[in-house]
Amino acid sequence: MLSILPIGCYGSDLDHKKCITMQISPTTIIDTGAMLSSIPTEELLKIENVIITHCHFDHIKNLPIFADFMLSMAMKQFNVYTTETIKKQIMDHILNNLIWPDFSALPTRKNPTINFVPIEFEKEFVIDGISYLPIEVNHIVESLGFIIRKGKKAFAYSGDTSYCDNFIDHVNDEKDIKVVCWEVSFPNRLENIAVASKHLTPSMLDSELSKIKRNLPIHTFHLKPNLENEIIEDMNNMKTQMTVTAMKQKKPINIV
């Protein structure tokens, strides 16, 4: 079965609402916003693959601590799949031996805790029988969305993005897509902030959905937790005929 489990699905932390971590399988997650606060120790030790969509703090904030955990707890290596640009941003600004140790060289360079695996836009890679097609999306830094597939079942995952014809084209072209996970970060009244930071509001998503050529269930994520109720109210007033619902933490989305 193909599924996505939102460990954290918000655009910030507040109370029990956590930043982005999406679990695709027991061994593989997308982004590290909520790993250490939300995944039990025995389950953390099973994680072998981390996919990083972009370098913003809410998406990488547990990566340094997870590396420390894996080294000190189990002397265990894990893979980080991301682009060369995003890797450089992480290395230059986080794992730079100033903000945090360079776990791509600890305990040794020949046997590092973090093994970076470079990926490229439009070049599919496979982890544990699940394929990932990286898509360039429209955010303020280099960012990845994905078409994630197992057999004849697939879903689209936007990552952080604003208006993005490239993502829409992929959704329209990939006939096996059953579900789309699409970011919405701000309520309609803050569209100026959404545009400036390259995120979406419900009205902006409504415009994007008008370009989709078939009816698909839409699951939104990255809502700012302090604005969640207002965003959902705006979502309820969208014009689209598609079913649009906000993700819930720890509630899996099964692609059937």
Description of the molecule:
- It is a single chain.
- The protein has helices at residues 35-38, 41-44, 57-60, 63-74, 84-93, 165-173, 191-197, 202-209, 228-236, and strands at residues 2-8, 21-25, 28-30, 49-51, 78-82, 114-118, 125-127, 130-136, 144-150, 153-157, 177-183, 218-221, 244-246, 253-255.
- The radius of gyration is 18 Å and the shape is globular.
- The strands form 2 sheets. The protein has a 7-stranded mixed beta sheet with strand order 6-5-4-3-2-1-14. A 7-stranded mixed beta sheet has the order 7-8-9-10-11-12-13.
- With 256 residues, the chain is of the alpha/beta class.
- It has a single domain (2-255), classed as 4-Layer Sandwich (Metallo-beta-lactamase, Chain A).
Short description:
With 256 residues, the chain is an alpha/beta fold. The chain has one domain: Metallo-beta-lactamase, Chain A, CATH 3.60.15.10. It has helices spanning 35-38, 41-44, 57-60, 63-74, 84-93, 165-173, 191-197, 202-209, 228-236, and strands spanning 2-8, 21-25, 28-30, 49-51, 78-82, 114-118, 125-127, 130-136, 144-150, 153-157, 177-183, 218-221, 244-246, 253-255.
Fold topology:
Layout: E1 2-8, E2 21-25, E3 28-30, H1 35-38, H2 41-44, E4 49-51, H3 57-60, H4 63-74, E5 78-82, H5 84-93, E6 114-118, E7 125-127, E8 130-136, E9 144-150, E10 153-157, H6 165-173, E11 177-183, H7 191-197, H8 202-209, E12 218-221, H9 228-236, E13 244-246, E14 253-255
Parallel strand pairs: 3-4, 4-5, 5-6, 10-11, 11-12, 12-13
Antiparallel strand pairs: 1-2, 1-14, 2-3, 7-8, 8-9, 9-10
